[in-house]
Amino acid sequence: MYEKFLEDIAQANGLREVNTYVKLVAGLGAIILCLLSTSFIAPLFIAVLLTGAIILLARVDVRTYAELFIVPFWFAAMSVIVIILLSGGSEVYWSWTPFSWLSISISAESLNEGIFVFCRVIGGMAALIFIALTTPMTDLFIVMRRCRVPEVVLDLVMMIYRAIFMIMHLLVLTYQAQVMRLGYSSFRESIESFATLCGSVFIASWDAGEDLVRAMDARCYAGKFALLGETGPVNGYSLAAVGLFLLASSVIVVITRDIVVI
Amino acid sequence: MSSIILEAREIRYRYPRGMEAIQGISFHIRKGEKIALVGPNGAGKSTLMLMFNGMIRPDSGVILFDNEPVSYDRGSLRKLRKRVGFVLQNPDRQIIAPTVYQDVAFGPVNLGYSESEVKQAVTGALRYVGLEGFERRPPHLLSGGEKKRVAIAGVLAMDPDLLVFDEPTSGLDPSGSEDIMELLDELNLQGKTIIISTHDIELAYPWADRAILLLEGKILQEAIPDVAFGRPEYVRQAHLSMPILLDIYFELEKRGYLLPERKPRTVLDMLQVIDVAFEKTPCSHASPGTISVFDVDSSPHDSLPGWLASHPDASIGAMGTRAKQHAADNQITLDFTYGVIDKCILRAIIGESSLILTSTGMVRRVEQRVLEFDTISGINVPVRLIDP
Lengths: 262, 388
What we know:
B: alpha/beta, Rossmann fold, 3 domains, six-stranded mixed beta sheet, 16 helices, globular
């Protein structure tokens, strides 16, 4: 059972104190540059640099990062194989036509296209994971408020955030209790155990919800959810580093616009 | 005698389609008292406590807060709940917000404080419970004791006059429980009235000014702890056990020793009882050791290392959250963190010196307690404030 959340890693990461906006600009800027780039080099550069930042600066465990990356990596790899085989081109290296309606080929253009798409995916992934691992939700709430997300939505989001961890905790406890008494020992048993798990966690979370209302009442709830803390101050170094990173990436996007693999 | 802050007159309450949980209870609590509400599971402790801040409305009878009957309209309830802080047994059920700062700020924000006032209230409350620097942490990553402190800070931020704790020490390790009990003492010294419910007799016995024994929705007894816990038949009925010190006292009495009238509430008291019983002079050493007091708020901090260097054998105790924080910041290993004054007097009796780190408000307490000991025992334990 997953007991360690991405959120927990983000809460303890080495870049936690860096201003949220600076981190978001780095991550979102990287995604946009990956999309703007017409060559595979810029996304690759972004992926390598952000991976380095995640591992060296945010001090995220390499294993954790690899585990996170491996799923989208394989997904991208398989999609790219399909792209390479199915898209045609003029300079064909290999082709096979098993049926009259299906022909598989590898051409220079399809290879270029495939590698380009693949690099774009891992560049974008690295940027997304960078945001996920360095910016905890609690910091994003502050950004959401700045972006004028309606108060009601924000309050709900915050309560849901808190509830997720509470319910997850209940879920783990109940699951462990079931396993201890030999639940999930056979297929039939598993289905029954799972049904009980859902039921009891539903009831427990309902109770927790009622308690929440009571707790809020006891603390003079008047329709205002707590205001938010502040994000760390904008630090010159981090701002310069992000600026340099985005500038370098943009330059690479421009100068490598015509470079292809083959 | 100070004025009455909370009073119940013949209150009764029956749960919908359930049994009568409270069957006619009357009592009053004075400002600045420390009250322990004890009784077996299902005695109605929690139900009774939920009436103190108007979460449950009694079917009959009145509850008076500050000599005014509690009224149950929205506005009055808000005012009541600002003044009566309630800390639930399970802090997970009390913590609402995704970060510590937000959670502690919840009450002040809803009371309509300005942003700077909220900040001040939150910082003050977190400092008080020793959680400075935890502002941005999410509650699910805290330990049980830390969560409890967040819950307490959330209530303290609203600056209530009366604090109600449902099982404040349940689920905490012994040292965590002692820390919480000391925090309650500290709050009490600042003039807050405190009511706790507990099963932990050993903690409640030395702590409380008065104990209320509840059984099946009725008050079995309401008295000072040594009386409340000193009647074997009541203790048995209330599914409690007698505090071990009282137990020893009564056993000594049964053996025919002549004991002082005053029942022992701490180990120090017990030793005095034993000394009297065996007619020994309490101090076997030529002169008692000195208790030095260091005020972490006002004494200059650089005078401490010198003192520590010249007294390498002294035992060190810290009273209060700020003093403990100070010790942690300066890598001072503490020998005592709970019942510090008594422990230091015990050291002094056997001729050893000790040091108490504490905050300004508590210095007087040290002097009082030592003076109290001096008058009873006839020993003169010197207390010195460390000054430059």
